[in-house]
Amino acid sequence: MAVCAGFLTACTQSRTTQTLDRFTNAQQETLEGNELKVTAGSSWLAEGTYKNFILKGEALTQSEAEARLGFHTDGKSGYEVIFHNGPIDGSCKTGSLASVRNLYRSLAKDGDWFPFEIAVRGKNISISVQDTTVVCYTEPSQPYRTEAHAKQLLGSGHIALCGVQGEVSFRNLQITALPDDAINECDTMPAVDEQKDLVIRFQQEDFPVIDYHVHLKGGLTKEMAQAMSMNYGINYGVAPNAGEGGVGRMLANDDEVYAYYDEVKNMPFLCGVQGEGRKWTATFSQEALGIFDYLFTDAMTIVDHKGRLSRIYRPEEVHYDGITKEQYMDHLVDQTVKILTNEPADIFANPTYLPEDMQADYDTYWTDDRINRVLDVLQKYQIALEINARYRIPSLKIIRMAKERGIKFTFGTNNVDANFGKLEYSLEAVKACGLTPDDLWFPTMSIRRTRPVVIYNKF
């Protein structure tokens, strides 16, 4: 799987480059100059129409400001690219292809000029921010569009600048027209059938689609993850394991945490880390783990009733030793509550997972009393509940019970290799349980840095 190149001009021959320095609004007023300031409520069209092109420039956003750059537009049709920075709060960020490929982490910062590039070649749209490709979308022959977005299609048209809130500045806007047969040779991913695809339906509704639980293991590289994320329209949160006992990339100390963060901070992913095993809170400092967007853990590793560290996803490590499975289940819930109470995580991942030989009786073991014990601690410490696509947990019943309490949710896969799905169970659960964007958790909601670290296990 190849990823679109960061410098898009390397993939095609170009023609004459023009400067975009004169825009007109509906009142025939003009916006002119090399540096253009766009304010809330204003809308400007550039002279000339374009089909295939490469548009380069720089942008500067003020705090909480937002603007949109439209193309192939007459003021109502075509696509828009969003310019909006700031923390990960659920709003669409810079580089988003609005309502088609929404992004939720920006590579740019308010108050700093940053470069961007938008290219259309045939049916392919590529967008880069800070020289990193963040969108590589190919419009299919039968795109899925809601009534509100019916005109969101490629054709030809003007370049537009539209202010949404605050003030956003653009400078050095240069557009290069490309021939009608131009193609993006870096667009190598298979086309998505949007008539059957769930994700585009959520994108069209501006419902955030983020997989917070992606691991680079089993042959999945950063580059492959980037290509898959752009092709599927799913924002990825990429996370290594910090601790011991897991599979794949493991971080062993603070120095490795900082080194890993330096590797990925400029990648177009949310940056997370998973606390692995039960010793991680004594291994890493709050300061080191605090640089990540979010932190999650699970209860798939417990201290069993005889004091042994047990990875319950490995049947050979699950020992009942004279107690019943009901008693084992009570101990598992006790451990889950202890983990969530003492380990300052943002997200409870792989929630309600059971050992393999107990999974057939999931609903029997997860009684209302046991469910409520776990939900109590999630609610108390404002921990999000992951809807896990790989294991299809927790059950819809538990999701509904959590929603009634106001507990927030995230989506996650916990992949083992590069061959994983598109959050099918998570998105199905949204519809089945009536979840809305207000039910979702975002890193701006994190309180983990205010929680004390309690070394509760004595190894």
UniProtKB/TrEMBL annotation:
GO terms for molecular function: hydrolase activity. Keywords: Hydrolase. Signal peptide: none annotated. InterPro entries: AL/BT2_dom, Pol/histidinol_Pase-like. Residues 20-176 form the 3-keto-alpha-glucoside-1,2-lyase/3-keto-2-hydroxy-glucal hydratase domain. This is Family 16 glycoside hydrolase.
